[in-house]
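Support request, please re-run this one:
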Amino acid sequence: MTYQKRLIEVDLPIKRISAHARREKSIRHGHISTLHIWWARRPLAACWAVICAALWPAPGQPDCPPAFIEAARMEMQKWTSHERLNFLSPESRLHFEALRQNLVNPVQLRPLLLDFIADFANWDNSTVKEFLDTSRAHYPSRA
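Re-run finished. Output below.
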């Protein structure tokens, strides 16, 4: 049995995730952990990003399952629609628009997944149905 490298082992958009985590830590309303300043605040942004990147195989690696590549390609293709592009950050939007028509190489899929993870780490996107559905669809199934 070969070891499948995960996305977190290949790359992670740490700078963007950290920016979301810093912003989330300063939010003082809407979450139970903000009741008292002494409570240890663990930003969910960083947790979501790390969980997704740790569960998803790394496209472009020789042992990445073809089923995951195809599912990820279909999900990332959905994010090129005009309705979903509005949820993405300007930086991510540029990448998705550039690869709208030509998403065939698994190596091209990796930056889109990383952009998705960075945008999903945004506190404002924590309840957006499209982000939640996509993150669930990418969960690798065990056969």
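The chain is about 55% helix and 0% strand. Residues 8-137 form one domain.
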